[in-house]
Amino acid sequence: MSRGRKPKWMIDIAIERMHILFENAEKQFPKHPERSNRYVEMAKKLSTKYNTKIPEKWSRRYCKNCGSFLCYGHNSTVRLINENVNIFCGECGHVMKIPYQREKKNKRRANYDSKQKRTDE
Ligand SMILES: [Zn+2]
Q: 72 and 90 in contact (C-beta within 8 Å)?
C-alpha cells in the first residue's frame, strides 16, 4: 500500500462508498446476514486503503472484534452502563464501550438521564 495522503475527492468517494456498503448491509441483514458481514469487510478495507475512518454513523454498527454487522435487537444489545454505552456483539460476545459523553448533546442529557432512571426502577 502506498503511503501518503490521498486526494480529498478520493477520500470523499471512499466515504460515500462506505455509506452505501453499510446501507446495503442493513437492508440485507434480515435475509442474508452473511452478506452484511461481507459489506462490513469491504467497508473496512476501504477505510484502511484510504486511511480514513468509518463514518461515525456506522462505526458502532459492526463488531470491532469479529467484524459482524450488528443489528440491535437481533445479534446485538445496547446498554447504558455508568457513563458508557456498551454494545454487546451476539456473534462473538465482544463488548464495545463507547463513552456516553460523545453519544448525546449536553442539552439533551438531563432529559435522557431522568428517562433512564424511570425505566430502571
Ligand atoms: Zn463480534
A: no
User: Model-level pTM?
Assistant: 0.77
pLDDT at 117 over 60: no
Closest CA to 79 of 57, 98, 65, 55: 98
CA–centroid distance, 83 to ligand 1, in Å, is 22
Cell numbers standing for residue 21: 456498503
Q: Residues 6, 51: contact at Cβ < 8 Å?
A: yes
Task: Give the residue extent of every domain in the chain.
Answer: 1-59, 70-121
pLDDT tens-place string over residues 14-60? 999 999 999 999 999 999 999 999 999 999 999 999 999 999 999 99
**Superfamily of structural domain 1-59:** Immunoglobulin FC, subunit C (1.20.5.420)
Distance (Å) from CA 73 to ligand 1 centroid = 15
Distance 9 CA to ligand 1 centre (A): 32
CA of 63 to the centre of ligand 1 (A): 5
